[in-house]
Amino acid sequence: MNILKIQQEWFGNVKGDILSGIVVALALIPEAxxxxxxxxxxxxxxxxxxxxxxxxxxxVGGRPGMISGATGAMALLMVNLVAEHGLQYLLAATILTGIxxxxxxxxxxxxxxxxxxxxxxxxFVNALAIMIFTSQLQHFVGETWIMYALVALTLxxxxxxxxxTKAIPSTLVAIxxxxxxxIIGNINVGTVGDMGIITQQLPVFLIPDIPLTMETLLIILPxxxxxxxxGLVESLLTANIVDDMxxxxxxxxxxxxxxxxxxxVTGFFGGxxxxxxxxxxVINVKSGGSGRxxxxxxxxxxxxxxxxxxxxxxxxxxxxxxxxxxxxxISTFDWSSLKNLVKIPKTDSAVMLTTIIIVxxxxxxxxxxxxxxxxxxxxxxxxxSKVKVTEGQVVQNQKxxxxxxxxxxxxxxxxxxxxxxxxxxxxxxxxxxxxxxLWDDSAIGALDKIEAKFAQNNINVNYIGLNEESKQLKKRIxxxxxxxxx
Amino acid sequence: MFKRILLAVDGSEHSIRSxxxxxxxxxxxxxTTDIIYVVDGKTAKEDVLHSTNKLEIEKKREEKLKPILDxxxxxxxxxxxxxxxxxxxxxxxxxxxxxxxxxxxxGSRGLNDLQSFILGSVSHKVAKRVNCPxxxxx
Lengths: 486, 138
Prior knowledge:
The complex is a heterodimer of chains A (486) and B (138). Helix content of chain A is 63%, strand content 6%.
């Protein structure tokens, strides 16, 4: 990488990056706290994560202008681990997540993203939105109308304020106003302070306090694996969105590695695993941010605010945070997919709905993605496994031509022999493979079987129109070499 | 008088209707029409989510504008298409003022009072801040 490019990525847009970084920091605080509460850890764990991830990604990320931090998708994956084993295991799992992501980056697995179909991605964001929303319902249990009124007020400010000014993030104004009302009116509602402690100090380097045994590894590995996959899926999706919004390219493998490094560092500094944030990245670009500096500024301002304002932060009512999370869930959900549900192919809708249902049933976005990819692979195989066989006329009482069209592979050849008629009193059969492609040994096997059946009736089989690749495969496996080349 | 017209579109019915007026106006004054389409953050997210790659995104956006481009093709007029990213209102204003067009033609979504209070009206914003005359097509 040359100096000019580094200079451009860091200092090509100083004013825009500093301003947007500040805006993002202000919008990040409520989300980082709320995501910590979803995961079941102290608010500081999410705040440290957003600080350290934003900071590290500024240097090692592959997509300048993208904002990363503690996210809902990752927080939702941690719930059980935290509940059963506690924070130290979460920190260890975060470090392992980073290691796995670096491996993904080295193995250039970002390319594999193209195997995740759109319908799975849409299912992913919709399931994420639904889970963020349902995670808030617990805060309403047994609450009075005051809680509902405060949530409604929060949402009203969030959605209406941008009509008058876009200079300050409306989520922050909503939080400040609602917190002020609760403090001044001395209203007794649940606050952030009830959920955990805010410490007004910088994170320190710590090695997670866990036994370094095989058992520990087996506990955290499944979580780390899920976290690594979900983190990369969301980060690469976000990178594509930022690419489009800024009309520039980004290095996806570098971003995978960067996410890994950021998670390792974060785990050692007491933060929970995170990834790129769609909403915050869109806010950043909209506010004029496009360089690495914006992410750095966001992290530093976030931490400074917490150190200065820690005492106020604990007084933020849960109602205000629940309001912010409802907004996050509304903007995460892909509303256009509802409109398109009847328009798009049925298989696409099925994949999308399956992804959502599996995520909601397992509470695991990673399993949903894998199941969605698998299901769409099966649909794809079913779609291309349609093979057409056309039977020609008998020529001079001794020769007949069959034309095969389609992809011959394990899923498509099982009923291929039944499409041939072996009882003709002829001496020669020609199989035209011009419109066919042989993919595997099942294809060769099926042709062998057809050939053998014809041979039983003393009919000789000839192949024509094999393409080069299919010829190679046939030669290698060799079963029908006796008939080929005649 | 109206030699260089800027037509702001979003692919909706309203923008197709406003395209008709823009073309007629340009024909009358033997002028040209340029198209501006601004992709905002929400649309960018949707487009990326619903496409597998960059080419598909471009194709989708072209398809969105196709009825309008077809009309312009038929009119034998010179035109340029500009796809920009950002907040539609400010982007259109900046583009129109910078390139000093003679007239901006834009469709109105026809929102009611409550909707325009919540969503904000792009055409109002443009009409207020663009230096040249603005034709809002209802």
